[in-house]
Each structure stands twice: as structure tokens, then as C-alpha cells.
Specification:
This protein is an alpha+beta fold. It contains 4 helices and 10 strands.
Amino acid sequence: MQEDQDLRYQVGATQQFGVRAVLLLKHGDQVFLKHVQEGGQALFIAPGGAVKFNETGVEAATREAQEELGLTLTPRFAGLVEAFVAMNGGQYHQLLLVTTATLSAAQAERLAHLDRTGLDLPKDTVLGWVPMATAAARLRPQALGRYLTTPAPAHAVDRREVTGGGDAL
């Protein structure tokens, strides 16, 4: 949903450009992700949201963690993904400001039993802990999977979902 000051723009009827902060929240060998369906296939996307004008990626990720998950944390900036994604009938060109955070056992448990009261999440949102190996194979855009391991690239381009081609670093 478009909010005031969001760096998200409709370019055409089914085309959108946006700058998005994404959170890769890790605990042990798992990562906390949104579960989505595309063409009958179960996929994952990282929680986060639109960066607002004059806001850094870390500031946006920190805000989104509080709004969507009720978490107070300061993630670490990990890099940038230029993503070209075709999903659910739309085409998206996104600059993803990737952030990561390693959660404590208490934070991980809290997310596993997330009380959505007062959180900025659509009611049909499905969230959960996913093994990193599974997540890396089904994460969209796929280039985000590289940020689940260390060292991660500082910048990746992912056109796989649009052109069927590879990505470049």
C-alpha cells in the first residue's frame, strides 16, 4: 500500500518501480520470511517495505521491523540488489537495500508466535522460520539468497524472474 513519502512509483498499468528495505532476520540456521504463492509454487520474500524519502535503508528496515513485526532492533546494512521481478501479473523494478540481523532465542521465539495485534500486516500474511538452504532456493528475488551466507556480495543484479537469464555481480 502506498504511504506518504514512499519511494514507490507506478510506471505503467502493471509496472512499478520502488526502493525497498528488506530484512533478513536470522536465528541459527533459519531465516524469518513471508510465504507467498506464485503460479502454484510456494516461494518466500523478505519482510520489509518501501523506503521513505530522506530515509536510509537501515532506518527504513528498523522502522519496518517495528511496524510489521513489533521488533526493536538495528539491522546491519549488507548490500544492494537490483531486482527485476514478474509476479502475480505485475512487473517490478526494485532497488532492494538489504539488511541483516541475528536474533536472540527470545526474539526468535516471539516471532514464531507473533501477536499481530497493532502490527501493520495484511491479515492474510503468512510468516515463519525457514531453513536457510530451503530459503535460498525459493527466495524471490533469488539474488537475496546470497546474503544468507557470509561473505555476501555488496551489489547484485537479478533479472532471472523476468528474462530467464542469470544475474551478475
